[in-house]
Amino acid sequence: MAHVPAAERRPQLIKAAIDYMAREGVAAGSTRAIAGELGVAQATVHYTFGTKEGLYRAVMEQLTQDLIAQVEGAAPAGAGFEETVATLTAALWRTVREQPASHQLLMELTMFALRSPALSQALESHNRGVTEVTARLVAEAAERTGQPLAQSAETIARFFLAGFDGLTMQRLSYPDEEAEHACLQAFVSAVVAMAGGRLDLVSVPSS
């Protein structure tokens, strides 16, 4: 087999790990299994990442980058504050419906990382990165629309992410299209109300 530079092999292994664990679960994601997914020697995984935890850390970092890109890409330009929150929620929810395995994998990795000291920093970086991006989008939308915030942008972001994680878990474990749409509307309304906006129900665009 032709030699492949580590800089090229690394993203290949990360993708293989994501594909495999999204399909089979984190518990099945041994270095041997990931190597087999890509068709390379197990030693290649250890040479590239050092340990299984090193590979998992790289997977979490990649999933974080992907999620941040989705969050940033969903933010509408020139929309009102309520519309921004609703559009952002709808766009993210679309990824839950279309990529459920990826969201389940991220949740599984989060639970795994909580019990693994070697992954605690990766978990903290993930949460900090997603929170910072969400808070920035909230602050930018408020400034652009002249919406005074009753809470800090970070507090609103943490509330938004906590609620969205809960809705995602419900979707994965107990899907109900009609109930989900009603919950999304109530969720967006709660976020807007927390930010200091109107208290009436805010419509969420259909996915």
Automatic annotation (TrEMBL):
Residue ranges: DNA binding: 30-49
Recorded GO MF terms: DNA-binding transcription factor activity; transcription cis-regulatory region binding
Keyword Membrane recorded: no
Listed InterPro entries: Homeodomain-like_sf, HTH-type_TetR-like_transc_reg, HTH_TetR, Tet_transcr_reg_TetR-rel_C_sf, TetR_C_31
Domain of life where this protein originates: Bacteria
Keywords: DNA-binding
PROSITE patterns: HTH_TETR_2
Segment forming the signal sequence: none
Pfam families: TetR_C_31 (PF17940), TetR_N (PF00440)
Matches recorded under SUPFAM superfamilies: Homeodomain-like, Tetracyclin repressor-like, C-terminal domain
Keyword DNA-binding: yes
HTH tetR-type domain span: 7-67
Protein's UniProt name: HTH tetR-type domain-containing protein
Classification of source organism: Bacteria, Bacillati, Actinomycetota, Actinomycetes, Kitasatosporales
